[in-house]
Specification:
By secondary structure, this protein is an all-alpha fold. It is built from ten helices and no strands. Helix 3 packs antiparallel against helix 4 (61-74) and helix 5 runs parallel beside helix 7. The N and C termini lie far apart (34 Å).
Length: 180
């Protein structure tokens, strides 16, 4: 199934292996295209921009995420488009700026409005990065603590190190003794 390749790609990204991550997603994209499976073609494209966000790659990520967001919106997949929107706002904020952080928060609300929790620790971390960029350390810290709570409650522990690394860069984490 194409999305299995995408999940394998995300796993490789969590290990810091961009080429392997992209190769898996491209395989998923190829399988979806061969079956004329439009939704999974879009899911693979979304996963590619998510992988770049996991790896902290900014160059080209905002533009690619914008395209994926537009394609998902056109397909009526607003919840999935919201994921691409969060990645686009994150990448644009950290590169060129001039983006309203509320766009990412609004996209997060669209993504989670049905109670979805999958990958929410990741998206909360991206929003935390945006808040940190705007020098709102307290808000950034609170978002990471919330992300840790979600990861703990859902068992999505793959994000533990990802979140701990971000917490370690915030002065509030040092004062509170929380870094993991």
């Amino acid at each position: 199934h194409p999305r299995v390749y995408c999940w394998l790609g995300l796993g490789e990204a969590m290990r810091g292996k961009r080429k392997a991550a992209h190769d898996y997603c491209l395989k998923g994209l190829e399988v979806a295209q061969a079956h004329r499976d439009v939704f999974n073609v879009l899911a693979a494209k979304l996963t590619i921009v998510e992988i770049d966000a996991v790896l902290g790659i900014l160059d080209g990520t905002a533009a690619a995420a914008d395209i994926v967001c537009q394609e998902l919106t056109a397909a009526g997949a607003d919840q999935w488009a919201a994921c691409a929107k969060m990645v686009a706002v994150w990448a644009r904020t950290l590169t060129v700026g001039g983006v309203d952080p509320a766009e990412a928060v609004d996209a997060f609300d669209v993504y989670t409005e049905d109670g979805s929790t999958a990958m929410t620790p990741f998206f909360l971390a991206l929003i935390s990065d945006i808040e940190k960029h705007h020098r709102r350390s307290r808000r950034a810290y609170d978002l990471l603590i919330r992300a840790q709570a979600v990861a703990s409650a859902t068992g999505e522990r793959v994000w533990d190190d990802f979140l701990a690394q971000r917490l370690a860069t915030l002065p509030l984490a040092a004062k509170s003794g929380r870094s993991a």
